[in-house]
Amino acid sequence: MKRERQGEQKDTGLSLAIECISAVSLATHDMVRAVRFYRALGFTVRYGGEGASFTSLHAGSSYLNLIAQPVERQWCWWGRVIFYVSDVDAFCARVLAAGSKPDSTPCDAPWGERFFHLTDPDGHELSFATPLPGGETPATGTG
To answer: Which CATH superfamily hosts domain 76-143?
Structure first.
């Protein structure tokens, strides 16, 4: 008889799969500044807002959450959030018009996306991308 390891599920015949990312939560020291930054990019507030300690913004069918943290709470580089947009060049123009300075200009990547990077006011790295026609993307593995 096979012994189960801790955390391992019994085979019930049910197929369990991760379906999608519901939300990504980012810390902020200044909710007013953070909400204004993301609104200028085109995100809309679902819950909370400038005066709240927790704000949830629409990001397509998912959410980007902002959580207020005291100034003594520090964080370091952890990764990057990647958002798909319908037109990465037009979106970059929106970012520039809003007064933000992207870390890079839109460019084509060998993995099949056109993208650019932007750092938010709290130091979180963001990437905005559009799949290239016929390109293989990390999200789908197909063109």
So the answer is: 2,3-Dihydroxybiphenyl 1,2-Dioxygenase, domain 1 (3.10.180.10)
Distance of CA 108 to the CA centre of its chain: 19
Q: Which fold has domain 23-73?
A: 2,3-Dihydroxybiphenyl 1,2-Dioxygenase; domain 1 (3.10.180)
> How many CB atoms lie under 10 A from the CB of residue 86?
7
DSSP string, 112-142: SEEEEEEE-TTS-EEEEEEEPTT---TTTS-
pLDDT in tens, 92-128: 999 999 999 999 999 999 999 999 999 999 999 999 9
Torsion of CA 120, 84, 116, 58, to 10 degrees: -20
What tokens does 101 get?
């300075």
